Amino acid sequence: MEMEGTKTHYEVIVIGAGVAGIYQIKLLADRGIDATVLDAAGDLGGTWYWNRYPGARFDSESYTYGYSFSKELLNEWHWKERFSSQPENLRYLNVVADKFGLRKYMQFNCKVEAAHFDEAQDLWRLKISDGRELTARFIVMAVGLLSIPTLPRLKGRDQFKGLSFHTFSWPHEPVDLKGKKVAVIGTGATGIQVIADIADKVAHLTVFQRRPNWSAPLHNGPISDEEMADIRRRYEEIFTTCSRTPGGFEHEPDRRGFYEVSREERVKLWDKLYDMPGFAIWLRNFREIFTDEKANAEFSEYIADRIRRRVKDQKIAEKLIPKDHGFGVQRVPMETNYFEVYNRDNVELVDITETPITEITETGLRTADRYFEFDIIVYATGFDAITGAFDHIDIRGLGGQKLRDLWAEGPTTFLGFMVHGSPNFFMPSGPQSGSASTNFPRGIETGVNWCTKLMDYMWAHGYTRANATEEAQQSWTDHVKKMYSVMLMRKAKSWFTGYNSNIEGHEYGKTRYFVYNGGQPKFLSQIAEVANNSYKGIDFNSGSLLAGLKAEDAARAGK
Ligand SMILES: Cc1cc2nc3c(=O)[nH]c(=O)nc-3n(C[C@H](O)[C@H](O)[C@H](O)COP(=O)(O)OP(=O)(O)OC[C@H]3O[C@@H](n4cnc5c(N)ncnc54)[C@H](O)[C@@H]3O)c2cc1C
After folding, report:
1. What percent of the chain clears pLDDT 90, i.e. is strictly above it?
2. Ligand 1 centroid to residue 144 C-alpha, Å
3. Which of 168, 228, 295, 334 could be joined to 59 by an S-S link, Cβ 3.0–4.6 Å?
4. How much distance in Å is there from the Cα of 48 to the middle of ligand 1?
5. Tens of pLDDT along 21-78?
6. 350 in helix, strand or coil?
7. 3-class SS of residue 291
8. Contacts of 78 (CB under 8 A, 6+ apart)
């Protein structure tokens, strides 16, 4: 047997050891396939390995987030909280990896820097940050859709002499917040979690907000032994519901028409939803919230009023109410006492649209009209979402086609799982797949199952190359785009549309069609149809056809 570290070829290389990579290697190990997982991180867990900031937790109900593939695991694991926190989530993923003996397939501290397709041999050649070159017939891109953090382009950012980090890179060792003057820059989903968690632990907290986000109470709470026993009994029903609902959650939209019921009825529903846990307020609402400006505006005003009631200083309340987008047109950050934070004497809100940050200095930062001193600066400034991790790898397919160039204006894919011109390259939770717009793990399990069955099919038929056709890719991308056209979210400045002012080319107005908006059931039926029709839309070839292929590829490259 080749020693780990000297082995250079695998049938499958999985890139990323998060929720997706762990499940992928489980399925490959079950089949006895020669496979490994590579991760740039020091250990497994992906999102839950990296994001260790205080307050990091699920907004998915824990028991709908966990894997569904093993009854034994479902029966053994006790989710302690309805919305479990990062340390427990990381422990869960470690328990899964250990239970199924998966750790031995994983290699850490190895960042994949390049992946080039070798057309003569139908395999991928990978360059790893530790200097190794590895090859694999297939690569599975389990690289994450929110795994590349972005920092603001601020003058002097490296000058600061205190502690400063992006929430994604929050240190592993405890950070002593007591008595400290802390800045948090950013009020997205992460900012909202971290701000609410640390406000009463620091001496002074200054929040720098550019654009407020709509947010509503999470209503977290413990899960007792009795409740967990009940959840275990209901698991099958829970996962069936998740596969039936648009978002992959237990939450189902209210089937009544917004305009069919009276204003009193609508408010009655909203009062109920505001007190319910998780995304109920978003996903159990009237469907018109997502598509109809007037309906959305009425509901947004309802939430605005809730904010006004929770914040004492009405000038601050108004600053916390978004004016440039309606509720729910982007993934809704869930909060625990977030708005009440601004009633505290040790918390200040600075609107950086009015007074922009002009520079970071050795001891703090300067805005257009003031100077602030800090011990710690926290950047809660989000991610190069969806395509960032792909763009960070030099990926070249047939004819040297660079994925980065192909996707320069936004991704084009087949089912979100494949890219024409990049054969044997699978993205179980890729851009335009069913993952990002849903409860991620539900989409991830679907994607990993589908990609693995496709590999099974190829192994069974002796195929060495699978390439999505250009037509199939175009038709999927058109379908994804079409679905944006009816959704209010198409106008949002969010990662659903590819907006990120900290990345060149991701300015507002250059919509990127990042996510599949058709809902889980539609997605499931479409990918099943492809699989059931001998993978319609994918060209397969076996090694014996290589000579012909090379000529075809050369012709394509010359186009
Ligand atoms: C703070 C936070 C909270 C979240 N909460 C929820 C939630 O409640 N519900 C929900 O559905 N989703 C949530 N998400 C989304 C979350 O990302 C997914 O739920 C899920 O963890 C994604 O798993 P993954 O395996 O696809 O990717 P990730 O967990 O992102 O793992 C990808 C891995 O790939 C590695 N990698 C990337 N590029 C390379 C490379 N070039 N070489 C080697 N390794 C590489 C990374 O280091 C990382 O470890 C949250 C995300 C964040 C950031």
Report:
1. 85
2. 4
3. 334
4. 7
5. 999 999 999 999 999 999 999 999 999 999 999 999 999 999 999 999 999 999 999 9
6. strand
7. coil
8. 223, 225, 228
Tokens of 231: 């959840």
Q: Which residues contact 506 (CB under 8 A, 6 or more apart)?
A: 384, 498, 499, 500, 512
The CA distance from 481 to 190, in Å, is 28
Q: Is the pLDDT of residue 547 over 70?
A: no
**Residue 509 three-state SS:** coil
With 80 as the cut, is the pLDDT of residue 16 above it?
yes
Q: How confident is the model at residue 544 (pLDDT cuts 50, 70, 90)?
A: very low
Residues 363, 476: contact at Cβ < 8 Å? Answer: no
Q: How far is CA 82 from CA 71, 224, 326, 543, in A?
A: 20, 10, 27, 51
pLDDT of residue 5: 62
Cα separation values, 381 from 148, 188, 550, Å: 11, 7, 45
pLDDT at 556 over 70: no
Question: In the beta sheet, which residues pair with residue 378?
Answer: 165, 184
| Element housing 135 (H / E) | strand 133-141
**Is the model's pLDDT at 286 over the cut of 80?**
yes
pLDDT in tens, 444-465: 999 999 999 999 999 999 999 9
Task: Among 67, 111, 147, name the best residue to mutate to test ligand 1's pocket (greatest count of ligand atoms within 8 A of Cβ).
Answer: 147
Residue 156's CB is within 10 A of a number of other CB atoms, namely 14
What CA–CA distance (Å, rounded) separates 48 from 457?
33
Which 8-state DSSP code applies to residue 40? S
Residue 22: its H or E element: helix 19-31
User: In this structure, are residues 232 and 238 in contact, taking their beta carbons and an 8 Å threshold?
Assistant: no
Which pLDDT score, from 0 to 100, does residue 1 have? 45
Distance (Å) from CA 18 to ligand 1 centroid: 6
**CA–centroid distance, residue 51 to ligand 1 (Å):** 9
- Residues 357 and 354: their CA atoms lie apart, in Å, by 10
Strands 133-141 and 9-15: parallel
**Which residues contact ligand 1 via a Cβ below 6 A?**
15-21, 38-41, 46-47, 49, 51, 56, 58-60, 65, 111-112, 142-144, 146-147, 190, 389, 392-393, 429, 439-440, 444
What are the percentages of helix, strand and coil residues in the chain, rounded to 5?
40, 20, 45
For tokens 């290699």, the residue is 107
pLDDT digits (tens, 9 = 90+) for 160-171: 999 999 999 999
Residue 514 tokens, joined:
């990042």
Q: pLDDT by residue (tens digit) across 169-214?
A: 999 999 999 999 999 999 999 999 999 999 999 999 999 999 999 9
Q: How many residues does the chain have?
A: 559
Terminal CA-to-CA distance of the chain, rounded, Å? Answer: 44
Three-state secondary-structure class, residue 223: coil
